[in-house]
Structures are given as C-alpha cells and as structure tokens.
UniProtKB/TrEMBL annotation:
Keywords: Hydrolase. The keyword Hydrolase applies. This is 6-phosphogluconolactonase. One of its GO terms (biological process) is pentose-phosphate shunt. GO terms for molecular function: 6-phosphogluconolactonase activity. Pathway: Carbohydrate degradation; pentose phosphate pathway; D-ribulose 5-phosphate from D-glucose 6-phosphate (oxidative stage): step 2/3. It catalyses: 6-phospho-D-glucono-1,5-lactone + H2O = 6-phospho-D-gluconate + H(+). Its EC number is 3.1.1.31. It comes from Rhodanobacter denitrificans.
Amino acid sequence: MHPPLNVTTHSFTDCRAQATALAERVAERLRSGLAERGHAVLAVSGGSTPKDFFDRLSHEKLDWARVQVTLVDERWVPDTDERSNARLVKSRLLQQAAAAAQFVPLYTGDATPEAGQGAASAHIDALPLPFDAVVLGMGDDGHTASFFPGGDHLAEALDPDGYARVLPMRAPGAGEPRITLTLPTLLETRALYLLVAGEKKRDLLADARLGLGEAQHYPVRAVLTQQRVPVSVYWCP
Ligand SMILES: O=C(O)[C@H](O)[C@@H](O)[C@H](O)[C@H](O)COP(=O)(O)O
C-alpha cells in the first residue's frame, strides 16, 4: 500500500498563466509572513523554468526590504558565471520592486563546496526560518534542488532527520560541483511549491509519486512522499 500523498497539482494551459499564478501565490505568502512576523524568507531554484515566474514576482508590490531571498541549491561557480543561480536570481527576480530584497548566497568563494559548506550553512542558520515559501524545480533525471541520482551525499541530504543545513553534492549529471539545502531544511517552510513544465516532467512526476518503474528511485520522490509539508505542483505544457 502506498503512503497517503500530500500533493496537489495546479495545471495551466499556458506557461505565462502558470508563472503569474505562482507569483501571486508566493507574494501572498510573503505578505502573510511580513504581517505576522515583520519579515519574510523565500528560497528559490535556479534552472530555466522559473524565469517567467521570477519576472512576474519581481513586480509584486510588497515590502521587499524586509524579505530575504536565498537558493535551494547552487552550482559552485561565482556569480559572474552564466551557470550561477545567484546570477539568475539577481538578474530576473531581484529587479523592479524586488530589487530591495536582501539576497543570501550559498556560494562562498571558497575553492570547493566542501570548503564552503560551513560558511554556507551559517548563512542559512542566520535566516529567521521557517521559510515562508520554497520553490523547487525538477530535472528530467528526477532530481530536485541538487538531490541528483548517484550524488555523493544523496542519502544524507534526503535523511528527514539529518542535522546538516546544507551539503555539497557531486554527481555525474550535475555538471559542476553543487551545494544544496538538505530535505529537512527545505521542509522547514510554510509552503512548498514544485514548478515544472512539459509533458515529460508531468509523466515523470506521476510515476515518481506512485513509485513506478525507474521513477521509484528518483530523488524527487522524497519530496512527494513526505508528510511534513503539503506540496503544490504548478504545471504547464
Ligand atoms: O540549479 C539547478 O539546476 C536547480 O535548482 C535544479 O534543481 C533545477 O530546478 C532543475 O534542474 C530543473 O531545471 P530546469 O528548470 O532548467 O529544467
């Protein structure tokens, strides 16, 4: 018998509508955090899928000066590199109204993510968690954040009771060494979103939820089957 699934899917017929809907939802979450706590914290993914969402969110009217924005994972490159998620977030999200937000990086300038782990972890420890919202993406290989199949710290990163805030990650499919928030860190959030596009990813998600075939081994399954935080999937073709 499968565990009860904690996942709601919002499907859109066009991707601009998806980006707009998620931006409005996340902005509401940030406003609630600001109203209740006087500050708000957001963690976002890199990759290509969230670009329109970032553009749309950057125009939302809220007190961005009291919002901290960090990443769910980072490629271990400086923000001058085109592969940098910090570069993406700075150029697409921290613009317009959102230019006033404070960015909290995971990349530290150390030579390796192993060397930078302590400092990156301290950056996350200094945030007033829980996150108000965490926005994940997913790769065609079933990775989310930098939970890559075959990753050298994958089991530790997915341990729901692990203590590490962040972990380095090296994997054949990762391109470059990475650093990632761990699963328990990501789940310390008031709201969890998974932003995906394309039929291939829709089918992959369905298989991963049910644990079918290859997909039973996909790291994203750990997010879909946990019972700590409901997951809202935002999908467009
Ligand atoms: O830095 C990263 O690579 C990510 O944070 C990663 O987890 C991403 O969300 C997926 O790889 C999906 O990427 P796409 O949106 O480019 O398909």
